[in-house]
Fold this sequence. Notes:
globular, alpha+beta, Aminopeptidase
Amino acid sequence: MPEPRELVVRPVGEDERAAWDPLWDGYLTFYKTVLPHNVSDVTWQRLHDPAEPIFILGAYADDKLTGFAHYLFHRSTWAPNWYCYLEDLFVADGARGLGAGRVLIEAVCEKARLAGANRVYWLTHETNAQARLLYDKVADNLGFIQYRRMI
Length: 151
């Protein structure tokens, strides 16, 4: 990918599904996950429903969507303020190294600050070495281990 003239972060419009789909597929492939198509449909609808507490920001290089961040706000038993969970962060292979991941994280942090949240947090797999190089620069790894039980 040629050096972009400008990297812009903004909400991804409801009419941009065709640009989001390949990135979403790349994200799921990276995590070796397959979701039924209807789950992706529901996710897309929620990202654009003002009644839902989940949002999407996109990173655009030369007006092309090159990455996204899905984030949501929730209450906590540990604080009176909102927490912001950065649920999904992905940058296309050809756009990595341009700073899109960092600007997406910073943009989510700003949205969280404006919403009155006092924390932004996210998870990644321990083998995601490339992303962790960035994450270690912009946040603290508190050493928590995630457990999951499907029901």
